[in-house]
Amino acid sequence: MTSPATGRDTAAAPARPSLLAAPVSGYPAAEIAQILGEVLEEVIVRRQRAGFNPALIADLRTQVATIRLAAQQWREWRVSAGGSTEVVAAGTAPRSPQEITPEQAGALLGVSPSRVRQLLRAGAIEGRKTGRQWLTTRGEVETYRCGRMAGSD
User: Which residue, of 5, 72, 75, 142, is most buried by count of CB atoms within 10 Å of its CB?
Assistant: First the structure.
């Protein structure tokens, strides 16, 4: 059966997973909001240029607004309690256990590690280079994969 909205064969498409929520509040929200504030607009512009589905970008903006609101609520609470709202500068943390190599990302995407490095250099997948090693996260790889799938409608 073909979907009138996408023109895709719906019988061949896997079912969309049930909606998952990842509530964020308190200090983690403040950290995430700070990191997002440093890189988000640049990422969104690159995703738009890469042809990502506008609905996914709108959903991203909505989620970020929610995280920023949670961060603001935490800061207000900390100030009212006489505490500090200082957040450690982003980018100072050591390598995260969630970071993966181009080899691991390639396995997830079904492409070669050199193609992953090419996508990282082009900014299609967010990542960072430490010495000669590129690192990204599973989340970034999934974002790219979902955007690529949505863009092929």
Answer: 75
Q: Are 33 and 71 in contact (CB under 8 A)?
A: yes
1-29 pLDDT per residue, tens? 555 544 555 555 566 555 556 677 777 77
Rounded to 5 degrees, φ, ψ at 105 are -65, -40
Tell me which residue of 80, 95, 74 sits closest to 137, measured CA to CA.
95
102 within 8 A of 113, measured Cβ to Cβ: yes
Give tens-digit pLDDT for 98-124: 789 999 999 999 999 999 999 999 999
Quick one: tokens of 46?
Answer: 């690159």
pLDDT over 70 percentage in the chain: 71
